[in-house]
Amino acid sequence: MKNFPLNLSFKIVALAPQISLTDANGRLLFYVKQKLFKLKEAITVYADESQSQPLYYINANKILDFSAAYTFTDTNGNTIGSVRRQGMKSLWKSHYAIHNHADIHILTIREANPWIKVLDSLVGEVPVLNLFTGYFLHPSYHITREGDTPEIIIEKQAAFFEGKFTIEKPGNISEKEELPVLLSIIMMVLLERNRG
What is the pTM of this model? Predict the structure, then answer.
C-alpha cells in the first residue's frame, strides 16, 4: 500500500509530457516521459527519472481513438488491468472505466464538476488570461465504485506552467486495486492534459 496523499506533477519539457508520482514522503513511485507523434499510444512507466528501470507498460488498443482502451502490463507481459475512456459520456463530463487483470470493471473515474471544463475553454480563448487558467481553474476527479462515494479523490492544485495534483484515499481500495488505479490516473492526466 502506498503512503497517501500522493502528489503527481505534470510538465512539458522540450514538448514531451513528463509525469512524476511521489508518495507523502516525497519518494518517487513512477516516472513517465511520453514520446511524441505516436499514432498508437505506447507508454513506459519507470521507477526512476533516468528511465533505466522500466516497471510497467501502457498500450492503446486502437490508433487515435476517442474511446480507446489502455492496457497495463508488467515487464514480464502479465496484464495488470486497463482503463477505457467512455467516449460519448466524456463529452460533457470526463468518464473512465477501470478494469482489473481479468477485464472486470472495478472502479470508475468521473470528473466532479464539468462546468470547470466549460469555463476553462471559454477563458482559454481570452489572450493573456489563458496563461492563468491553470492557476485558478482546478478540475477534480472522483474514483468510485457503484455509488457516488469516492474511494480516491484527485484534485488539481494551483500552479503555473505545470500541472500539480494531489491524490487522496478516503475510501478502502485494496492493495490489488491500487496499481491499476494509479496507472489509470497517469493515463487520464495524459489524456486530459489540454485542460486546466
Answer: 0.86
pLDDT at 118: 61
Read off the amino acid at residue 57. Answer: Y
pLDDT at residue 192 is higher than 70: yes
Residues ≥6 apart with Cβ < 8 Å to 31: 18, 19, 20, 21, 45, 46, 47, 48, 49, 51
- The residue written with cell numbers 488491468 in the block is 81
Helices (H) and strands (E) in the chain, counts: 3, 12
Give the burial class of 146: count Cβ atoms within 10 A of its Cβ; 0-12 exposed, 13-18 middle, 19 or more buried: exposed
Q: What is the 3-state secondary structure (H, E, C) of 178-189?
A: HHHHHHHHHHHH
- Across 149-163, b (16+ Cβ under 10 Å) vs e yields ebbbbbbbeeeeeeb
CA angle (149, 65, 80) in 5-degree steps: 55
Residues counted in the chain? 196
| Residue-wise pLDDT tens digits, 21-76 | 999 999 999 999 987 766 678 899 999 999 999 999 999 987 766 678 999 999 99
Q: How many Å apart are CA 143 and CA 109, to the nearest integer?
A: 4
Phi, psi of 191 (to 5 degrees): -75, -30
Which spans in 4-160 are helix H?
115-123, 133-136
pLDDT reading at 129 higher than 70: no
pLDDT at 115 over 70: no
